[in-house]
Amino acid sequence: MAKCDICGKGVHFGNNVSHSHRRSNHIWNSNVKSVKCKVNGASKKMHVCTNCLKSGRVERA
Questions:
Q1: Domain of residue 39, residue span
Q2: pLDDT per 10-residue tile (average), the chain, 61 residues
Q3: Which terminus of the chain, N or C, has less C-beta within 10 A?
Q4: Signal peptide: which range, if any (predicted)?
């Protein structure tokens, strides 16, 4: 899974805990999209999380 090129957000690891308190491994993938962005006047394809897109940290090409 890709990491966000802006904030570095990526995969989170942890445990699923059942009602009987048995634990199993779990992976939470962050919502990272491949987007064309403007970087120094040129368009470049980057991996950006939706939180960075929504907040306006990235200008789309």
A1: 12-55
A2: 93 97 97 95 95 94 88
A3: N
A4: none
